Amino acid sequence: MATIREAVACPKVREAAGRSTPISDTPENRCGGFPAYSGHPRSGGSTHRGHITRAGNVHLRTQLVEAAWAYQHRPAVGVEIAKRHEGLPPEVVARAWKAQLRLCGRFRHLAAKKNTKSVVAAAVARELAGFLWAEMTAA
Length: 139
Known about the structure:
Blueprint: H1 6-17, H2 58-69, H3 79-85, H4 90-113, H5 117-137
Helix pairs in contact: 2-5, 4-5
């Protein structure tokens, strides 16, 4: 991801994912696997995601929300990010760019509808957690 530094993100995400209880790898459980967010409902036509909780890994939750704030800006690949992309497989770079486009668009879309940007940042952080989970479990 463009806004997550490997030195901070990887150990904390591995710590959250390396819990002793197994987490199933379904789309519904990807965000729920992180201790920062409550679960998703399983049935019905509407989707209501739980609020950001104070349970779980405080450092992980803080890093996700702080990283989500960067998505309020236009998507771009700067010099530092381009250096990090060197040597990575093209599929990983493509998934990172796709995630950056989606999350930037999501932030703009939600910010236009909501009055409170902190709520928008929490929603984008939830989706960022899903992208990180997908990247960790990609074969």
